[in-house]
Structures are given as structure tokens and as C-alpha cells.
Amino acid sequence: MAFMVKHMVGGQLKNLTGGLTEEKPEGEKSEAAAQGMTQEEFEQYQQQLEEEKQEREANFAQKKAERATVRSHFREKYRLPKNELDETQIQQAGDDVELPTELAKMIAEDNQEEEHKQSVLGQLTNIQNVDIDQLKDKAQATLEDLKKQTENCSLM
Question: Could you give the CA distance from residue 65 to residue 71 in angstroms, rounded to a whole number?
């Protein structure tokens, strides 16, 4: 029974789908003519598309390298392991990748804050109940006393 149904319907289905396949007629137009351009205009158009594609790829590679630079900076700052993928992306961009200006400003500010915290006065501000102005006054008074004593010294 299945053979009979397949035989009767199968042949008709083949006839129906026969018109759906694309067959190129012998006198088909070229791609340029199909788009309403001459062959020379079409070639220029294709060349322009290729140049734009290369420019986009170059910009994308540059952005990837900038992001890799930011990631590697934070890895160095927080002493995390390096990533080889980031290093290769930076090298592929030609090693002329810099940190974005906003990030560079933030890093400079952070470095200044860290330097201040690491200095003696920065450490003293962390200690509670310490009057920095009083310490400065005492240090200046001590220096003035030393200067007076050296003026009176006969060896100098």
C-alpha cells in the first residue's frame, strides 16, 4: 500500500518542485549589470568595500589591543598572572597601543595617592590622635635650634 501511495504522490511532487530550482539562462546578466553598474564601476565598488572592510578590521584590532593593555595594566597592578592572549593582541597591534587618557589620569591620581600614603607624613595621618601641625612645628623648632647651635660652633 505504501508503495502505491509513494508512486502516485512522489511523481507529482517531483513535477511540482522542478520549477523551484534555479537554473541560469544562457543570456544572464553579470553581477555588475544586475546592479545597474558598468563593469568598471562594479570593480571600483568592490575595491572600496574591501578597503572599508580592512579599515574596520584594523580599528577592531586596535580596540582589542587597547582593551588588552588595560587588562594587563590591572594584572600588573594587582599582581595577577599574565595572559598570553593579551600580550599577543598587543604585539599584533604593533606595540603602539597606549592606555586611554581617562584611565591614564586615574592611574596617575592613584599613584600619587599611594606615594602619599607610603610617605612618612602619609603614615602619620593613619595614626590616630596625632596632630601633624604640632609635629611640623616641633620639627621646625628643632631645626632652628640646630642652626643656632651650629652658628655658635667654633669648628664650623
Answer: 10
Residue 76, classed as helix, strand or coil, is helix
Q: How far apart are CA 48 and CA 1, in angstroms?
A: 62
> What's the pLDDT tens digit per position in 15-69?
666 555 555 544 456 777 777 888 888 899 999 999 999 999 989 988 888 888 8
State pLDDT tens for residues 80-126: 898 888 888 888 887 677 777 888 888 888 888 877 777 766 666 66
Cα–Cα distance for residue pair 97/72, rounded to 1 Å: 12
Residue 89: predicted pLDDT: 85
* HSE-up (13 A, CA, CB side) for residue 64: 16
Q: Which residue has the cell 612618612?
A: 120
What pLDDT was estimated at residue 125? Answer: 64
pTM listed for this prediction: 0.47
DSSP letters for 79-133: TPPP-HHHHHHHHHTTS-----HHHHHHHHHHHHHHHHHHSHHHHHHHSTT--HH
Q: How far apart are CA 93 and CA 66, in angstroms?
A: 9
Q: 10 Å Cβ neighbour count for 2?
A: 6
